């Protein structure tokens, strides 16, 4: 499935991001990393709320650009990285 998606978008997907409630499941995140053979970055849990808040702050003029929104989101969130298990060839 991941290969098909990469072909569709014409780009390599180097990292998979899992956000929201599902990001709290270590088993799900490790399974995704292993099954796709890609690192998984899990979190933030409240991604939708954080995104909504940051768009409102941007609209108020307190944040000036998309890159600033991304930086605020990055430093405001705790994420966990899962590495894929090595698969014997």
Write out key terms for the chains shown.
single chain; 89 residues; 49% helix; mainly alpha; globular; 4 helices; three-stranded mixed sheet
Outline of the structure:
The chain is mostly helical and 89 residues long. The chain has helices at 2-9, 26-36, 47-60, 66-76; strands at 16-18, 40-42, 80-82.
Helix-strand pattern, N to C? HEHEHHE
How is the largest sheet built, in terms of strand order? 1-2-3
Mean pLDDT: 93
Roughly how much helix do the residues carry, as a percent range?
Answer: 40-55%
Number of helices: 4
N→C terminal distance? 20 Å
Structural Rg = 16 Å
How would you explain this protein's 3D organization?
This protein is mainly alpha-helical. It has helices at residues 2-9, 26-36, 47-60, 66-76; strands at 16-18, 40-42, 80-82. Helix 3 crosses helix 4 (66-76). The model has no long low-confidence stretch (mean pLDDT 93).
Outline the secondary-structure elements.
Blueprint: H1 2-9, E1 16-18, H2 26-36, E2 40-42, H3 47-60, H4 66-76, E3 80-82
Parallel strand pairs: 1-2
Antiparallel strand pairs: 2-3
């Amino acid at each position: 499935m991941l290969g098909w998606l990469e072909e569709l978008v014409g780009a390599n997907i180097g990292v998979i991001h899992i956000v929201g409630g599902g990001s709290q499941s270590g088993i799900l995140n490790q399974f995704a990393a292993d099954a796709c053979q890609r690192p998984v970055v899990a979190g933030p849990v409240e991604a939708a709320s954080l995104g909504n808040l940051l768009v409102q702050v941007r609209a108020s003029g307190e944040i000036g650009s998309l890159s600033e929104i991304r930086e605020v989101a990055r430093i405001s969130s705790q994420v966990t990285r899962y590495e894929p298990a090595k698969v014997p060839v």
